[in-house]
Amino acid sequence: MPRWSLAVPPLALVVLALSWGRDLGAVLLILVCAGLGAAVIAAVHHAEVVAHRVGEPFGTLILALAVTIIEVALIVTLMASGGDKAASLARDTVFAAVMITCNGILGLALVVGSLRHKTQEFRVHASGSALAVMTALVTLSLVLPTFTTSTPGATFSSAQLAFAGATSLVMYGIFVFVQTVRHRDYFLPVDISETPAVTLTTPAYSAPVSDDIEALDPPDELDLPDELDLPAEEDEPHAAAPSGNVALVSLGLLFLCLIAVVGLAKTVSPKLESAVESAGAPLAVVGVVIALLVLLPETVAAVRAALRNRLQTSLNLALGSALASIGLTIPAIAVASIWLDGPLVLGLGGKELVLFALTVVVSMLTLATGRATLLQGAVHLMIFGSFVFLTVSP
Q1: The whole model's pTM is what?
Q2: pLDDT tens digits for 67-92?
Q3: CATH number of 60-188+265-392: 1.20.1420.30, 3.30.390.50, 3.90.1150.10, 1.20.1050.10?
Q4: Which of 166, 240, 295, 381 is 20 to 30 A from 326, alpha carbon to alpha carbon?
């Protein structure tokens, strides 16, 4: 294990401790940004170590769960201290996570991977099922509150919120069971051995015309190679899996890195809020920026997997992160609403509904064939750019 990967997590926590609750000056702000970037890189490294030990899709699931759990803690903390201004923070952050993962991370992985490999393959049944669960979760949790009539505004009643939380948790639990137990092979990266086999035929033996009849008989054995040299899969050499102790150390350091990422992101958030207010932009921008910072480890991991021609791993990270963000955040918010004061706005507005519908339709077309090119990635990135622009300038 590289020494820098061992040193970064405690150093990032030291920076977090020095900057927590303080007004960030120029020097301290630079240290916080540097610690945030280093923690993201270290988190990706340790996540890959754990993933190499446990195999796919458990490795991507561990990273998605770790990021989402700490993201939920950050949302609840900000809602508890934000008052009425934070009434829509959960909705803005969860919807931003969906748009970032389904358009930003997915589009970036498709573009980067296509630039190196031209066309990439993935498993339709795995990605399609994840998209179906994600669509159902967003509709039941973030779309329906806009149209319910039990309470005023885009909110749920207590019974409706409890039902939405339980439904989200059950659907996500079933998806994890299918992903890791029942149909684990569906979510594994596409391997070259799964491509259609090539049938090799030996040309008919011929001998020169001779009066000797024995000369017409073929030899008993042909000198053929035992194995056919096929081009190897374009990937990195397979290294030996790390030991269990190394994987446990990396798992602990991964959580420390994620704590540092979320804590440093929260430390920077007051500066972001001041900049947003000075620019006259809506407060939803803060939720988008925080979601971007928190999802940086998964973004880097998805891009690196695409560069290795493992697009299925990138899809597992992108769609799995969206599912974890909704499936865990909504139940946690439902429980936290018992002691949180003020309304809890969950329903999406008209602009967000249009963007979500566009994302679902385009994602269905992208995942329908099992092959992706540069065009699909560019379309997803354009949708993500539109989301960011319309968030800043509604």
Answers
A1: 0.73
A2: 777 777 777 766 766 666 667 878 88
A3: 1.20.1420.30
A4: 381
